[in-house]
Amino acid sequence: MLLALVLAEVVAAEAALPRPRIREWGVRVGILESGPLNSITDVAGVRVGHATVVRGEPLPSVNTGVTVVLPHAGNIFREKVAAAVVVGNAFGKLAGALQVNELGELESPVVLTCTLCVGKAWDATAAWLLSLPGNEEVRSVNPLIAETNDGTLNDIRQRPIAASDILEALRSAKEGPVEEGSVGAGRGTVAFGWKGGIGTSSRRLTKKLGGWTLGALVQSNFGGILTIAGAPVGLELGRYFLEGETGSIVVVIATDAPLDHRELERVGRRALLGVGRTGSPMTNGSGDFVIAFSTARGSAPLPNDALSPLFEATVEATEEAIYNSLFRATTVRSARRTVEALPLERVREILQRHGIAVR
After folding, report:
1. 248 is annotated as an active-site residue
2. What pLDDT, in 10s, does the model give residues 170-209?
3. Which among 34, 202, 248, 334 is annotated as catalytic?
4. Which of 58, 123, 165, 180 sits at 20 to 30 Å (Cα–Cα) from 174?
């Protein structure tokens, strides 16, 4: 009973502190327009689900979770989509990547979780795929499981993710607005020395540029010298990787543009430019991965000379998704440590001092 009360107080305290997305300040990242939700779910059919796992008393020892991205509502094993995995720095555990790049297609949800829970997540996702109607005779599946290490706020050695958490995230996956910040696989993450988390953004090209939609979702848990819209925020706040922690980031890119595996690799590499714009040098201990997929089926891939607008969309959406992961994240306390949310009033002052218009 005491544990339930303590956890309820923690959740209530976080909920009482509504935090904006960066666009709510009037800060425009890049030149392209966002989709109506400014989310990866602006790509028609894409669904996102979370399961947030918080346990322990009097302060939680476990702060972790699961976030899943599904390309569509159907049987993903039977209705595969073109996909690619891009590696920036390979200090990480990304299960299923080899087959995705060998065959150029995705046959599973994209599942994000914590480092030591990859095996459990793989097993639970495989069981879910095998259980889908139409898969009764399937003898091989390739779950794609990505991770970042949330051991700063999470007793990761417990390997606390259970099959029920994977199922919760999968069953809750839906279209529409995506919850961001200290939720799901972003519950225990740390970015640039502040609380990281889940963030998302999108871009919609004009008809002249193809009319395609592209969205990004990030699990931010990495280091560097935080730069926001060109302003040296990390330097002025006195927190940056040479003075503190490093870590990892997973970027998921979805688009309705008809792209094949090779073209999705090209798109995925541009997501790393978006990561770099926020101040990351991709340090030695960072696992920097991009998973890109296209929901288009049955269409010929775009010609190469039509891709540049999508490259720009990828850079911008990734950059803004990272900012949203930081802006929306709340302070998280654990038995091990407290990680504070990015101090937005100080950030506002820094942006204004560097000539960036903020409402």
Report:
1. yes
2. 999 999 999 999 999 999 999 999 999 999 999 999 999 9
3. 248
4. 123
